[in-house]
Design brief:
The structure holds 2 protein chains of 2 kinds.
Chain A: H1 2-45, H2 47-58, E1 59-64, E2 71-72, E3 78-90, H3 98-105, H4 113-125, E4 132-138, H5 140-148, E5 156-165, H6 173-176, E6 179-181, H7 184-188, E7 200-202, H8 205-209, H9 211-215, E8 219-225, E9 231-238, E10 245-248, H10 252-262, E11 267-272, E12 279-285, H11 291-294, H12 299-307, H13 316-319, H14 329-338, E13 348-350, E14 353-354, E15 363-364, E16 372-374, H15 376-381, H16 385-395, H17 397-405, H18 428-435, H19 441-448, H20 458-469, E17 473-475, E18 480-484, E19 490-492, E20 497-499, H21 506-521, E21 539-545, E22 568-575, E23 582-588, H22 594-622
Parallel strand pairs in A: 2-10
Antiparallel strand pairs in A: 1-8, 2-3, 3-4, 3-5, 6-7, 8-9, 10-18, 11-12, 11-23, 13-16, 14-15, 17-20, 18-19, 21-22, 22-23
Chain B: H1 7-10, H2 15-35, H3 40-62, H4 65-89, E1 99-100, E2 105-106, H5 108-126, H6 133-151, H7 156-172, H8 177-189, H9 191-197, H10 200-210, H11 220-233, H12 244-247, H13 259-292, H14 296-320, H15 339-356
Antiparallel strand pairs in B: 1-2
Helix pairs in contact in B: 2-3, 2-13, 3-15, 4-5, 4-6, 5-6, 5-7, 5-14, 5-15, 6-7, 7-14, 11-13, 13-14, 13-15, 14-15
The chains are: A alpha+beta, B mainly alpha.
């Protein structure tokens, strides 16, 4: 009985257990289906989505900076290039004992305490597999010493990067400019993608103006990284596109001659080819070396440049506006001819001064004894003020303004440099607007000799001179002739040209140009001394821009005046007389007189230009 | 009924279970090789443990089930005592899971993984089935004491799994449905106090499961990267040793708890399905052994061991594919880990013992 009871129990127990196993199995299958459904959803339905996410995890885009374009001068001199600069860097995780390793390295390479301190500071901020710079700008000797023993320093490596360098340096800085590290202000106008790997940007000069061409296109490396950001390998690489090579219109020899001629004086020289508007020389002195600016100029050095009373950072050639003084007189004469108010033979009597009706003021000629009867030619050659007072009075300020406007005075030339000043070509409207005052007749007289409100930059003056030389073609000055992209495409750049004064006949031009020739190579010309012995013919005009008015009846010789209060000396010139090739403007600050200071500078520049041309011609004949 | 005894029966080994387990070990070692970044030493250590586990399994299979039944109270008491010592002697921060014996470290919770179903099966099988209420309550206490001790360590995952192992025994014993319903109601009602008792990091895991994107760099990072690994594997996977999520170290815990994500990434849906199928085969074989076991003890114990394996797999896979909270449950035979594989093998040794030590039912009975 007991046996059979336990036997029945066993059967029912088996039944219970079996049914429970089946229930459990059913539940299991249900849960498995749920798992597999979820797996299929993730791996099949959403596969593309998660593939993208996984790629985003592992693939990073690393920008590669392009090589900046080179800059050559007209005569083929490399004036801005990229030089390898060596730095010693360390991957800390590969160095076993950093203190010992640094001590050993210091026996080969100069390490200042500040180098080590900076290194330790940077190291804390980086991951152990990141490279940390230890020393910049290694000398070649240091590189060589380290290379020999490199196997002794695992984790230390010397790498070369390209640094902008200006071989010609100071004489060209006001043209070429320089690059510097990108700062907050630069970032505003930049394409962040294209500049993602770039550290330097053009700050002034051609480097700034042609930044877009010189910079090039950023390259992109696709690299595989792990979760800590360590780069494991390069998957794909789109190499950067180097910046374009730029060829300047500047001739370094002419530039050097002009710089030399100005010497240690403050001043500017601008020389333009009147046929094309190409700027052959653009000098502002004193000048400075651009190279220290590239990788951060020291505070002391920058302070010296900034605070120097000579203002070397100031580009006088395009940023400084000076009263043109008597250099305006040839333009005035042309205005008289243009408006039919004068013919070349008409005379004006110069007693040494000029007066207006109802005005007791005597407007003096520079020659207090008077020039006597002056024709247009004589008035230009001897720079008679009285002749041009009368002419200015006859023209009136508004006609003067309109005429001078044709020569680009009072307007930016739109040369390819940043920061150009506009100068002032005064008129009634200008004075009302700028000074809220009416125009006074006496101001017309003063304007007639290029004083008073008139201001022009040396570049504007050179441009206006080129208009005379070309007999009526206004050329936009240009510093760049060709832009050559790395793919071999070259773009020639040409400034806009505009024909002005087409109605002025050849005789009118001849008379003014002959008068200007007489300024330098005539018996009474104001600049005749500076032209002595010249083996070519040229035309010019002296000018003096007054810094402060000499009071009535006061006799002051410039020699007695403190140097910085002396008048500025100006000179414009072009040559040869027929088919001029070079037009220039020179200003020597506090040079006292145009004939004494500026004209000799122009002579040196012209000598350089023509003597070399003659050499070239002879060489061609001999060859 | 007196079948001819095969070599396998003489050796007390079930060939199908052995085959299934060997396949799982092989897959596990292959995936581990990739997940560890081709670390030979790690794979060798894991292989050694597996061999140890297989040895334990074969040894355990030689003893008859009644041996384990008799041993179970002692095993249980020793395990609980160790757990208590561990929970009170530990002073430092963090989890007190390890017992350092000097020559080796092991987790007493591993003992309980075997002891709890054993003692439970013995208790329940001693009476008639379905079990009576007093017996059930006693069984519940036997299960809950170690489960709570382990959860307090804190190791919520293992504690819950030990609870499940005991519960499976009771379920197979024919626990009445109305009790099951009652437990379910009480369980749901106790979620609120449970929530308040949980450690912060445990709560965070639950919250993270609900919205991993809320904290993508913190607690959500595991789930997000794991799901990316699984999803990017696609149907066929990126290929062995080609998984970028694991090899580039985006996937955390890739050779332990999240190793299934590595498998999914490198072998795709097909690979994952094959692995799950092998698990199902092993589980099915275990359930078949349970069905043909000769007594209640064997039936309950075998069923519990087989279904516990399923719970392990389900919880781990559910975690990796973002359906269950991140609890520290390894994937059996695949995840790198010390004693867990040995314990599992020991369980399968007992399963084989149940299957191969059949009492001759003499016709004379």
């Amino acid at each position: 009985m007991l046996q059979s009871l336990s036997f029945r129990d066993r059967q029912s127990e088996v039944r219970i257990a079996r049914s429970r196993v089946y229930v459990a199995a059913a539940l299991m299958i249900l849960l498995l289906v749920a798992l597999l459904a979820r797996l299929a959803y993730l791996q099949v339905v959403r596969h593309d989505h998660y593939t993208t996410l996984s790629q985003d995890n592992r693939v990073k885009i690393v920008p590669v900076a392009p090589t900046r374009g080179l800059i050559f001068s007209r005569d083929g001199v490399l004036v801005a290039d990229n030089r390898p600069s060596f730095r010693l860097q360390v991957v800390p995780e590969r160095v076993e004992d950093m203190r010992e390793a640094l001590a050993k390295v210091a026996t080969l390479i100069d390490l200042t305490p500040s180098d080590v301190e900076r290194f330790q500071r940077l190291r804390k901020r980086k991951r152990s597999f990141d490279t940390v710079p230890l020393r910049f700008n290694l000398t070649e000797e240091e590189v060589a010493r380290f290379s020999v023993d490199r196997h002794r320093f695992p984790g230390f490596e010397v790498t070369a990067s390209l640094t902008r360098h200006y071989p010609v340096g100071a004489p060209l800085v006001h043209v070429v400019g320089y690059v510097g590290r990108i700062d907050e202000d630069d970032l505003k106008g930049l394409d962040p993608d294209n500049y993602s790997a770039t550290t330097h940007i053009g700050k002034i000069g051609v480097e700034q103006y042609y930044e877009a061409m010189l910079h090039g296109r950023v390259g992109l490396d696709q690299v595989e990284v792990n979760s800590q950001g360590r780069t494991l390998r390069v998957l794909d690489s789109k190499p950067p596109g180097a910046g374009a090579t730029i060829r300047l219109t500047i001739d370094t020899r002419l530039q050097a001659a002009a710089t030399r001629a100005l010497g240690d004086r403050r001043g500017a020289v601008v020389a333009i080819d009147p046929r094309t508007g190409e700027v052959l020389a653009l000098v502002s002195t004193p000048t400075f070396d651009p190279n220290p600016f590239v990788n951060g100029i020291s505070v002391a050095l920058y302070g010296d440049l900034r605070d120097s009373p000579d203002r070397p950072l100031f580009n006088r050639a395009i940023q400084a506006a000076y009263p043109p003084g008597s250099t305006l007189k040839p333009l005035m004469a042309l205005a008289g001819l243009h408006y039919g108010l004068r013919s070349p033979g008409d005379g004006t009597w110069c007693p040494g001064w000029f007066t207006l009706e109802n005005d007791p003021h005597r407007y003096r000629c520079w020659n207090k004894w008077g020039h006597g009867r002056m024709s247009m030619r004589e008035a230009i050659a001897q720079s008679c003020d009285v002749y041009f007072y009368q002419l200015a009075l006859d023209l009136g300020i508004d006609r003067m303004h309109d005429f001078l406007d044709l020569f680009g005075l009072g307007r930016r030339t739109r040369i390819d440099l940043p920061g150009e000043a506009a100068g002032v070509n005064p008129s009634r409207a200008w004075k009302r607007k700028a000074r809220q005052l009416p125009w006074f007749p006496g101001e017309t007289l003063i304007a007639g000799i290029g004083q008073g409100f008139h201001t022009t930059t040396p570049l504007q003056l050179a441009q206006a001179t080129a208009v005379i030389a070309s007999r009526g073609t206004l050329m936009q000055p240009q510093l760049v002739t060709r832009i050559e992209t790395p793919d071999g495409k070259a773009t020639a750049t040409a400034g806009k040209r505009r024909r002005v004064l087409a109605d002025l006949d050849a005789k009118a031009w001849d008379s003014v140009i002959e008068a200007m020739h007489e300024v330098v190579q005539g018996p009474t010309g104001t600049a005749r001394r500076s032209a002595e012995g010249a083996r070519y013919e040229y035309a010019g005009k002296t000018g003096t821009s007054q810094l402060f008015g000499i009071r009535q009846n006061e006799e002051i010789e410039n020699e007695d005046v403190e140097e910085r209060l002396r008048d500025h000396g100006l000179f414009i010139a072009f040559a040869p007389l027929d088919r001029p090739e070079i037009a220039l403007a020179v200003i020597v600050e506090n040079g006292a007189s145009g004939s004494g200071s500026a004209a000799p500078v122009a002579r040196e520049v012209l000598d350089e230009y023509f003597l070399r041309k003659e050499h070239a011609r002879r060489a061609a004949q001999n060859g | 009924m007196d079948e001819p005894r095969t070599v396998w029966q003489r050796a007390h080994i079930d060939p199908w279970l052995l085959l299934g387990l060997l396949v799982l070990c092989a897959i596990g070692l292959a995936v581990l090789y990739s997940a560890s970044g081709e670390d030979h030493a790690m794979v060798m250590r894991q292989g050694t443990r597996m061999l140890m586990g297989l040895a334990v399994m074969v040894i355990f299979a030689q003893f008859p089930p009644v041996f384990f039944s008799r041993l179970s109270p002692l095993l249980y008491v020793v395990g609980v005592v160790l757990l208590v010592i561990l929970n009170f002697h530990g002073t430092g921060r963090g989890a007190h899971r390890w017992l350092d014996l000097g020559f080796m470290r092991f987790q007493p919770s591993e003992i309980m993984k075997i002891a709890v179903p054993l003692v439970c099966a013995r208790l329940v099988a001693a009476g008639s089935l379905p079990p009576t209420l007093p017996r059930l309550l006693l069984a519940a206490i036997l299960v809950l004491v170690p489960a709570v001790l382990i959860a307090e360590q804190p190791d919520l995952g293992t504690g819950a799994l030990i609870g499940v192992a005991g519960a499976v025994v009771l379920f197979l014993a024919g626990l009445r449905w109305r009790y099951i319903a009652g437990i379910a109601v009480v369980g749901l009602a106790s979620l609120v106090p449970l929530w308040t008792m949980m450690h912060d990091y445990q709560r965070q895991r639950v919250l993270t499961l609900l919205d991993p994107e809320a904290d993508p760099l913190g607690t959500g990072y595991h789930i997000i990267q794991s799901v990316i690994a699984v999803g990017s594997g696609g149907l066929f996977g990126k290929g062995w040793l080609q998984g970028t999520q694991s090899r580039l170290e985006f996937l955390p815990e890739r050779h332990t708890d999240f190793i299934f994500a590595v498998l999914c990434e490198e072998f795709g849906f097909i690979g994952a399905a094959i692995l799950i199928a092998v698990y199902c085969g092993v589980i099915w074989r275990g359930l078949a052994i349970a069905l043909t076991a000769q007594d209640s003890f064997g039936r309950l114990l075998a069923g519990s061991i087989a279904l516990t394996l399923f719970v392990y797999v389900f919880v781990n896979v559910g975690m990796v594919i973002g359906q269950l909270p991140v609890v520290g449950v390894p994937l059996p035979f695949v995840s790198y880990g010390g004693t867990a594989a040995v314990t599992l093998m020991a369980g399968f040794g007992i399963l084989m013992s149940i299957h191969t030590h059949r009492r001759r039912l003499s016709l004379s009975l």
